[in-house]
Amino acid sequence: MTALAAVSAYLPERRVPLEDLADRLGLSPLQVRVFRRFHGLGEVCREPEDAGPVDLLAAAAANLTELRGREHRVRYVLYARGMPVSVPYPMNPLHELCGRLGLGHAVAFSVTHHACATSLLAVDIAGRLLAADGDPDALALVLAGERTWTRDAELVPDTSVFGEGAGACLVSADGPRDRVLSYVTRLRGDFDGRLTEDPELLARFQREYPESLAEVVLGSVERAGLRLDDLALILPHNVNSVSWRLLARRIGYPVDRVLLDNVAHTGHNFAADAFVNYRTAADRGLLRPGDRYLVAAAGLGATFSAMVLEH
After folding, report:
1. What global pTM score does this model have?
2. Which residue from 221, 211, 186 is spatially nearest to 307, judged by alpha carbons?
3. Dihedral angle, C-alpha 59, 62, 66, 71, nearest 10 °
């Protein structure tokens, strides 16, 4: 059974208030206030201007202390990207990173097209690859995190603002903790398109979003053979606070057991939110051995995913 052997996160020290981004993003003072007061977003993480995507991912990998001395056991390296393209061709940050980390021997590739839910897909793929290999000592390294190079990579209209954080996760085919009990994903290709240029599509996405996300959350709980009450915690993607409060009310789950603390201070960190929030929960002692918890995410395009694990 797929298990997370270790998880790390990296958040840049620099925090940028939404007011400082308003001119570049074309946000009016009213829109900034709505983001703060309604969506619960106040500031986002930003890397230094001269830092590249390799530096961001390397910082997350550096915090994964369990990787040190086990590099020879890493068979796969998966980069879970929220954006289909992260750097101009022919640059390849993943292979450069593998060189830095001493993982040149590993099979390395990117996973995309689930947008901000891609990290869950990458964990699932990593577990399947390791199970097929049959080597109980083999590991896979999953990485997530991106720079906000363009306006499309900084803003989801009327919904969220992206930050720059990263996460890293060691995956094993089996293990004693953080074992994957279920994984459910639903693709809604009818939402494919640029929401910034299609107000009608944006309105329909916002209207149908809660039902689609609730469907995968409840489906993953059922597939794990559990009830919602059995979950100690939900680790959300940090798109905003209000959508999760509404979802919790919709499915009848206590909102105080949805980890929303990072939303206001980090923004939405693409596919890295799952690892960022896991690290927060673990560091604060919110997960005890044997606790079952759920990680959920939605990605534009659109993908809705949820994964239940046992700590």
Report:
1. 0.96
2. 221
3. 110
